[in-house]
Amino acid sequence: DQGAATASGDQGAATASGLRGVAIAPGIAGKVCGAVNGIDLFAREFEYVGGEWKRLSIACGTTGVDGIKAGVWYICKDGRLVIADE
């Protein structure tokens, strides 16, 4: 309960399974997943421009709120959490 999972490397993935947990994927092409309702999810979107990675947007949400589903992997796209391609 109240645990946190973080993935900081490129294409990292973080999943949290305890109550009131947090999953954070601040790296390039990171994915987040909350195994149960009530997990806070945070992800960032990047684009490679001019020889370096630029942050485009940040997204957050909570599983079980506003259509964010538990057990589903998400990425950040245009400032929103969207389901990651399998």
Features:
single chain; 86 residues; mainly beta; two-stranded parallel ribbon; globular
Total strand segments: 8
Name the average pLDDT.
Answer: 87
The stretches of 5 or more residues where confidence is low (pLDDT under 50) are: none
What fraction of the residues are assigned to beta strands by DSSP? Answer: over 45%
What's the helical proportion of residues? under 10%
- Number of helical regions: 0
Spatial order of strands in the largest sheet: 1-3-5-6
Task: State Rg.
Answer: 12 Å
Spatial gap, N to C terminus: 28 Å
Reported for the largest beta sheet, the result is:
4 strands, mixed
Q: What does the overall shape look like?
A: globular
Could you characterize what this model shows?
With 86 residues, the protein is mostly beta strands. 0% of the residues lie in helices and 51% in strands. The chain has no helices and eight strands. The strands form three sheets. It has a four-stranded mixed beta sheet with strand order 1-3-5-6, with no helix packed on it. The chain has a two-stranded parallel sheet with strand order 2-4. The protein has a two-stranded antiparallel ribbon with strand order 7-8. A hairpin with a 2-residue loop joins strand 5 and strand 6. The protein is globular, with a radius of gyration of 12 Å. 28% of the residues are buried.
